[in-house]
Design goal:
There is one protein chain. With 194 residues, this protein is an alpha/beta fold. It has a single domain, classed as Rossmann fold (3-Layer(aba) Sandwich), CATH 3.40.50. The protein contains 6 helices and 10 strands, in the order αββααβαββββαβαββ. α3 (32-46) crosses α4 (60-72). The structure holds guanosine-5'-monophosphate (5GP).
């Protein structure tokens, strides 16, 4: 998606070699006009599917998911972080290793809000090594619901996430795929670069 690629090139910042900071438009200060265009694009990509729920993980996925959900007219369910596995039987949980924080957290959703009849579209801001998405897929599997697709804003194509999700048979679509960002120079898989 050219618009998102332009935002990344003009405003994003590469830190520590493999982390892209997008605080200034995507996950701290949020550009709602951009999110709206992303919502339209995700609807164009997945609108032919029967979706009953959008699933994401707190915190940075929530804003994007809410805007996307408006185009599908379905609710957003976000997995909460830091839940405890043994708080009872009313949660589906999964352990997720955080690429940016370097720690493992348990994420969870209430069993009341994810049901076998749900058809779920996962939306997240980044795909790196795929742990967040795999955790969300595990929640869907535990509920006996159907995964319809995974929609990612920014995929770092040089990490292992895509391979893991494709191996699970996911319909994965990313709005911007970064092929490399060596030396802070961002190169997109579709040829756009900085
Ligand atoms: P994964 O679980 O695929 O390894 O990483 C995805 C999660 O880590 C996303 O939910 C996102 O919050 C965070 N993340 C991974 N890479 C980056 C990055 O380069 N920049 C930012 N801002 N977040 C990232």
């Amino acid at each position: 998606m050219k618009l998102l690629e332009d935002y990344i090139v003009n405003r994003g910042k590469v830190i520590d070699g493999d982390v892209l900071k997008v605080d200034m438009f995507l996950n701290h200060l949020i550009d709602v006009d951009l999110l709206n265009e992303m919502g339209k694009e995700f609807h164009r990509l997945f609108g032919n599917k029967k979706i009953t729920k959008i699933l994401t993980v707190e915190a940075s996925g929530i804003g994007i998911a809410c805007v996307v959900a408006q185009y599908f007219s379905v609710p957003v369910l976000f997995a909460k972080k830091g839940v405890h596995r043994n708080v009872g039987t009313d949660l589906y949980t999964a352990d997720v290793f955080s690429f940016t924080k370097g720690v493992t957290t348990t994420i969870g959703v209430s069993k009341n809000y994810l049901k076998p009849e749900d058809h779920v579209l996962i939306i997240d801001d980044f795909l790196a090594d795929g742990n967040a998405s795999l955790g969300l897929i595990s929640l869907i599997e535990q509920a006996g619901a159907t995964l319809e697709g995974v929609g990612i804003a920014v995929e770092k194509g040089f990490q292992s996430g895509r391979g893991k999700l494709l191996a699970k048979g996911c319909d994965l679509k990313s709005l911007a795929v970064i092929k490399s960002m060596d030396g802070g120079r961002i190169v997109f898989a579709d040829g756009e670069d900085s």
